[in-house]
Amino acid sequence: MAVLPYKDKQDSKKDQVAEMFNNISGKYDLLNHVLSMGIDITWRRKAIKYLKDDQPKLILDIATGTGDFAIEALTLNPDKIIGVDISEGMLAEGRKKIKKKGLEDKIELQLGDSEGLLFEDNMFDAVIVSFGVRNFENLEKGLSDMYRVLKPGGKVVILEFSKPTKAPMKQAYAFYSKAILPQIGKLVSKDNSAYTYLPESVQAFPDGMDFLRIMNNVGFTSNLCKPLTFGISSIYVGTK
Ligand SMILES: C[S@@+](CC[C@H](N)C(=O)[O-])C[C@H]1O[C@@H](n2cnc3c(N)ncnc32)[C@H](O)[C@@H]1O
């Protein structure tokens, strides 16, 4: 059964996810860095390095949110990065940040659903997504559309939370994500559910070999998984 942000509501997962990110958008960046103790910045950097030999010129950042993964991808020196997201609130925060950094000529943020991308087939040199795929309503549909818009030979780089498997990190992380993270998240974001949904959705989401199998089913080849920080998150790379 799908893990939903607001269990008492009847809306689809997609509508609930958009509503949740609209609610927390103003505090999203702050909470990201506080709750991960800044490690999320290192994770995005490591993930983008998987594209450094490819030198992609046109990049699509799926579930771009406030644009941090797109901004990190600028280290690859592309001509253009397009970021899409279903949350207008997250995009508004991202646009403010991009304007402040003077990056409007390089990064364009658009409202869009990754399970029905409005781009042509074989358009992008690389497709990237950080902490987005877990929120899709239909994971295979989202991954298939990413595959469709990627050029043959192009790579997809996916960064997503995973589950540490070894003691004592497994127990320590379970305690942190169930007892501490939701409390801090609730206090700062004022959304009672968003940071309870986070560990619940991580728990229910396929990781490691299970995720690689889904990438393979969708058509990606040469797939690899690199666990980060005791497996709290993982980088997945695949080729079209
Ligand atoms: C945890 S945030 C990640 C944002 C950013 N990539 C980062 O690393 O900080 C997840 C984002 O996925 C977006 N999202 C969820 N489902 C989506 C979909 N079907 N299409 C596009 N964006 C989606 C949400 O609106 C939210 O902004």
TrEMBL record:
It is an enzyme of class 2 (transferase). It comes from the Bacteria. Its EC number is 2.1.1.163. Keywords: Menaquinone biosynthesis, Methyltransferase, S-adenosyl-L-methionine, Transferase. Belongs to the class I-like SAM-binding methyltransferase superfamily. MenG/UbiE family. GO terms for molecular function: demethylmenaquinone methyltransferase activity. The keyword Repeat does not apply. Pathway: Quinol/quinone metabolism; menaquinone biosynthesis; menaquinol from 1,4-dihydroxy-2-naphthoate: step 2/2. InterPro entries: SAM-dependent_MTases_sf, UbiE/COQ5_MeTrFase, UbiE/COQ5_MeTrFase_CS. One of its GO terms (biological process) is methylation. NCBIfam families: MenG_MenH_UbiE, PRK00216.1-5. The gene is menG. Pfam families: Ubie_methyltran. PROSITE patterns: SAM_MT_UBIE, UBIE_1, UBIE_2. This is Demethylmenaquinone methyltransferase. Methyltransferase required for the conversion of demethylmenaquinol (DMKH2) to menaquinol (MKH2). S-adenosyl-L-methionine binds at T66, D85, D113, S114, S130. It comes from Algoriphagus ratkowskyi. It catalyses: a 2-demethylmenaquinol + S-adenosyl-L-methionine = a menaquinol + S-adenosyl-L-homocysteine + H(+).
